[in-house]
Every structure is written in C-alpha cells, then in structure tokens.
Amino acid sequence: MKLYEFQAKQVFASQGIPVPRGEVASTPEEARAAAERLGRCAVKAQVHIGGRGKAGGIKLANSPDEARDYAAGMLGKPLRGLMVKRVLVEEALDIGLEYYLSTTIDRTTKRVVLIASAKGGMDIEEIAATEPDSIIKHSIDPAYGPLDFEIRDVMARAGFDAKASRAIGAIVRQVYQTMLDADASLVEINPLVVTGGGAVVAADAKFDVDDNALFRQQALAQFREESEEDPIEAEAHRRGATYVRLGGDIGIIGNGAGLVMTTLDLVTRAGGHPANFLDIGGGAQADSVQEAIEIVLLDPKVKGILFNIFGGITRGDEVAKGIIAGTKSIDIKVPIVVRMAGTNAEEGRRLLEGTNLVPAAGPIEAAEKIIQLSRQ
Ligand code: GDP
Ligand code: MN
How far is CA 362 from CA 183, 271, 304, 305, in A? Predict the structure, then answer.
C-alpha cells in the first residue's frame, strides 16, 4: 500500500523526522484558509505519481488568494491520469540544498539498504540514468541497525554538506526505525532539503507499506481507504480479497497467484481483456467463492467470468458448491466458464451439471470459451 505524501509526513512527524508545517485541503477555500495560517506556501497535488513538479502538481503561492487559485486548478482534475482529491498546503521552504535519502529492501541480501545521493530533487531513476556514481548504497545489518560510522561514511561518500551531517545522521536513523516500525518496503525522502538557515527538512515523502503487515499496523491500515484510487479495489480489499482491477471485461477467479496470472496470460493471448486478478487462495470454501463472484461483479464492465481452479488443498466439490451458491444468491447476467482439475474435480464437475455454468476441459479452451460467450 502506498501512502500519500501528507499521510507519510504524518508518520514522519510522529517518528520525529522534521517536515514542513502543512495542512491538507480538499476545497480551494480550505487551501486559502490554510495559506492564511502558513504564509508563503507550496500547494501540492496528492496523487501517487512522482515528478508532480514537472507535471504542474506543485505550485508556489505568494498569497492566500493565489493558493486558492492554484488549488482550484488542481482539485477535481486529473494529473497524469490520476484524479486530485486533495492538496497539501505547506509553508514554503528556503531551499539551500536538495538531497536524496531512502531505505528499501534488497531482496538479494535480504536486508534493508540505505540509499543516498547529493543529487536530490529529480526522480531516482533519472539520477540513476544521468549520474549513477552519485548514488551511494549501503546494506544494513539487521542485528545492529545503521551504526554511526556507517552513516558518516555514507554521507561523506554521497558528498553531503558536513555542516548538515549531524541533523541528517539523526534522520537516517529515524528513517531506518520508521521502516522497521511501519513494516515499510520503501521510505523515500526526495528532496531532503537543507534550508538556507541550515535546517534539514523532509520536503517530499514516499512511503510503501507491506500489505501483508497491515493486520498489525492498525494506524496505517486506517490510511488504506483514503489512499486507494479505485473504489472497486477498495471495496474488494475491505472484504479481504486479493484483488487487482485490470480494466478489461473478463472477470478472472482462480486459486493461487501463479495460476491466476497464467489465466490472465491465456485470456490475453486468446484475444481477451482481463477485468481483474482475484486469487481465492488455498482451501477456499463455498462462501469465499460466492464472495469472489460478488466482488468480480462489482465491476460493471465485466461481461463474463472465468474460473480456473486447480484442486490441491482447495477441493473441486467445495468450489462447485460455492459457484452454485453464488449464482443462486445473486442475479448473474453474465456467462460463467469453469475449468477444474485436481482434487475432487470429478465431483465438482458433476455438481455443475444441469446448471447454466459452462464447463471447460482445459485452461486454453476455457479462455477461448469465455471470450466467445462474453461477446455474444
Ligand atoms: P515531486 O515532483 O512529485 O517529487 O514533488 P516534490 O515535493 O519533490 O517537489 C518538487 C520540487 O519542488 C522540489 O524538488 C523542489 O525543488 C521544488 N520546491 C520549490 N519550493 C518548494 C517548497 O517550498 N516546498 C517543497 N516541498 N518543494 C519545493
Ligand atoms: Mn519528490
């Protein structure tokens, strides 16, 4: 789960990482009122893309009226395809230097890696392309956390201003601690600003939290609702489903992420457009299958549903009962093709006989059938 900048900065503030004073606004009038309190300010569109500055999503306002007008220009409009629902109004910074600082997980070393560069402000991909040598990486031993000498070494190699090193060193430690405390997979500050007066402030914030840790991150889980862009995905997640909306018209339900992804490929190769990814997991019972159908049908674009079930832990007869229960409890107007193999597949197929569900012998046939039926 990605946090919005304003949410990430709330987390930063609670961890002691310095952030500019700011307020969230969802109307131009609120933005004007915030600017009244903050003085000269930056108006920042809250959307999950980088490079908002270049896209017109960051504006510097010299007066409350200007802040209101900039907010009016952003709110309710798309920024690179993403609807802006809120802006963050922040006190303007007297920017001296712009650095890059992040922690993320390096899957090869299985450690948190600290990344620093004195070329902050632009996207890390851009820094990597134009000045790869300016990016300093250091992997952190989980037993000790970042040690003082390591932090000093990274800052020196990155070329950070020595006068700011005490303040930045403290932030590095806080960022690492935040990473652990929040079960984050990325904490990025770009730019980390050293002001003309020598203060160090996180001017921007990117923050990804491991979805699988949300059960023990109650405070962050509350952000989930407001951080989600797609209302159907939001509803699916509220119901506990592993669901990703893909924009096509063929609903896909399967058990196991790998099988579902393969099914997406098969449907695409057969000329169709998957509406979603939905994994009902292992050992799925009748009620979870029924719920899956309901979730897929939340998307009004869906013209057909393809079930691809491989019975291992999940038993075919259980799934068949779920599909039958699901088709009885809701008024389904779209065709459903079912491909079933593995444990109790025979029993499952027998249960489906005499219903209007369409069986398919194999996954490729299933993909072709559902495309054909959904076009009728
Ligand atoms: P991004 O473009 O989405 O990464 O948004 P940022 O928050 O990083 O802002 C982009 C750029 O705006 C920064 O790198 C700064 O150079 C510039 N900027 C100018 N004045 C300000 C200010 O007062 N506050 C902030 N946050 N950025 C400013
Ligand atoms: Mn940025």
Answer: 40, 17, 17, 15
Residue 177 has pLDDT above 80, yes or no: yes
For residues 192 and 203, the answer to whether their CB atoms sit within 8 Å is yes
Residue from 30, 35, 31, 74 nearest 55 by CA:
74
Which atom of ligand 1 approaches the CA of 93 most closely?
23
Whether the predicted pLDDT of 200 surpasses 80: yes
Token representation of residue 1: 């789960």
Omega prior to 64 cis, within 30 of 0: no
Is 294 in contact with 322 (CB distance < 8 Å)?
no
Q: Which atom of ligand 1 is nearest to the CA of 121?
A: 14
* pLDDT above 80: residue 343: yes
- Determine the residue of 6, 49, 204, 207 to mutate for testing ligand 1's pocket, defined as the one with the most ligand atoms within 8 A of the Cβ atom: 204
Q: Is 100 a catalytic residue?
A: yes
Q: Note the pTM of the prediction, 2 decimals.
A: 0.76
Per the DSSP assignment, residues forming a β-bridge with 277 are 244
Rounded Cα distance between 34 and 25, Å, is 8
List pLDDT tens digits, range 35-85: 999 999 999 999 988 889 999 999 999 999 999 999 999 999 999 888 899
Structure tokens at 214: 């949300």
Q: How far apart are CA 137 and CA 111, in angstroms?
A: 12
